[in-house]
Amino acid sequence: MTSEIVSIENLWLFRGEHVILEDINLRLNRADFLGLIGPNGGGKSTLLKLMLGLIKPDKGRIRIFGQQPEAARGMIGYLPQKTIFDQSFPVKVLEVAQMGRFSRTGLFRRYGPADRDAALRALEAVGMEDRAEREIGALSGGEQQRVFVARSLVSDPELLLLDEPTAGIDSAQQAEFYELLCHLNQDRGIAIILVSHDITAVSKYVGKIACLNQRLYYHGSKELTSEDIEKAYGCPVDLIAHGTPHRVLRKHD
Amino acid sequence: MMIELQLDLFQYDFMRVALAAGLASAVLCGIIGIYVILNKIVFISDGIAHAAFGGIGLGYFLGFDPLLFGVGSAILTAIGIGMVSGRARVSEDTAIGVFMATGMALGVMLLTLSEGYARDLYGYLFGNILAVTVNDVLLISALTLVILFLTYILYKEFLIMSFDPVYGEAIGLPVKSLRLLLLAMVAFSVVVLIKIVGIIMVIALLTIPGAISRQHLKELPAIMAGSVVLGAIFVTVGLLVSYLLDVPSGATIILTAAAFFFLSTMYSR
């Protein structure tokens, strides 16, 4: 086994006549922390769904842990962009977190004490352990989001795919949340792909950055050229930089 | 005096059989109904019930067991709706509308072409619990046990699917197969319930006990248990009233349930 956990080669995706993703190449190793930025509709969520095998590419090859994406799902923790659910659904926070144990427990088997402990630990990791017995609908949006992060952590994944995880979380909680991701990445060696449109916040924490707008701008590092950003966003760079210190762009004259 | 009267009327065999069938179907409705509500598949369940009429008509016409054909056509409808919807710009609710009307039309046509249809037609449409046989009770009980077993071993799977199917699929849960299994369980339940309350009203028995139970209880197992108890109350009260007043049993059961539902809804607000 190599340490390569994501390998995407010459991947194309079409929807009807339109090109959604164009010649995507991406390699990630164990314990990489990739920030995936780009404008809305640029294909960020779609790329995550390809990695989960929910969508099939029209051309090209995609391997996760050297396997077809569907076969690797058990090793992936996933947080969808927006979890739409019935706010009055009769389910407790602990039960929601426990749902992520499915890939470990398997079909037809009921959860045991180990699953319950794992769910409690995951809730503790996101600071929601005291809400374990509450109904999910009784929590605020930010708290619910944390529970869904716990749900993606509970299977002890080796790759975390997070689609806009800080949506609906206030800025103090966001910093705390990013610290949590850094801890998971550095101490547990979990590889993370973090989709976000908040370049400033992301660039502070991630190890590598890629920018996606139909094409993927990625140099295997934390730097993107100003041309990359301009091409991807189709607008002047200072609109994005906007006075905040950041480390996405290499210093240039 | 009332108690004497009750004991008295349950001395009739047909009343005992009817009550047994009603109680077994209350368990069935209690469990399946909750999943119908949580997955928001009320309309497709109603479509399946109506489409079952096509199979019943065919069974009748060919001289085989109508309910067996009813189950067959109900399951085929569930699969058919899944196949047609999403194809050629047909949305799921459009597909349901088409299938349910087609099933009803086929049923009416085939029953009319068969001998002595009139009385049975009424029974299938509006239910006739007093015509339930001992064999029917055994069938309902067996089916109830199978469904209890399935929902027990697939409890966590159905919970994920009902709560967040998108996530379920992403973590490798066979959401499509589970949904088809749920629809098949609905199809079986619906056809059994046709005997009790009839095609037109079957959806009420499937949804009302669960809807009330959900207004007052919080955890899923408790909601299911509450739904079973409520179903049993509706069937028993409905049977008694229909016997005492000599009015149709199916309609009485549904009106009893509906009365509880409106009272409960007013009380919860």
Largest sheet: number of strands, sense, barrel closure of chain A: 6 strands, mixed
Structural class by secondary-structure content of chain B? mainly alpha
Mean pLDDT of chain A comes to 83
Largest sheet of chain B: none
Mean of pLDDT of chain B: 87
Side by side, the strands of the main sheet of chain A go 5-6-7-3-8-9
Span of the ends, CA to CA of chain B: 37 Å
- Along the chain, the helix and strand elements of chain A come as EEEHEEHHHHEHEHEEHH
Individual helix count of chain A: 9
Name the largest protein-protein interface in this structure: A-B, 32 and 26 residues
Give start-end ranges of low-pLDDT stretches of chain B: none
Count of DSSP helices of chain B? 13
Strand proportion of chain B = under 5%
Quaternary assembly = heterodimer
Cα distance, first to last residue of chain A?
Answer: 44 Å
**What Rg of chain B, in angstroms, do the CA atoms define?**
19 Å
Structural class of chain A: alpha/beta
Order of helices and strands of chain B: HHHHHHHHHHHHH
Computed CA radius of gyration of chain A, to the nearest angstrom: 18 Å
Basic shape of chain B:
globular
Any overview of this molecule?
- The complex is a heterodimer of chains A (253) and B (269).
- In chain A, 32% of the residues lie in helices and 23% in strands.
- In chain A, α4 crosses α5 (141-153).
- In chain A, a hairpin with a 2-residue loop joins β1 and β2.
- Chain A is built from nine helices and nine strands.
- Chain A is an alpha/beta fold and 253 residues long.
- By secondary structure, chain B is mainly α.
- Chain B is built from 13 helices and no strands.
- The mean pLDDT of chain B is 87.
Short synopsis of the structure:
The complex is a heterodimer of chains A (253) and B (269). Chain A is α/β, with parallel strands linked by helices and 253 residues long.
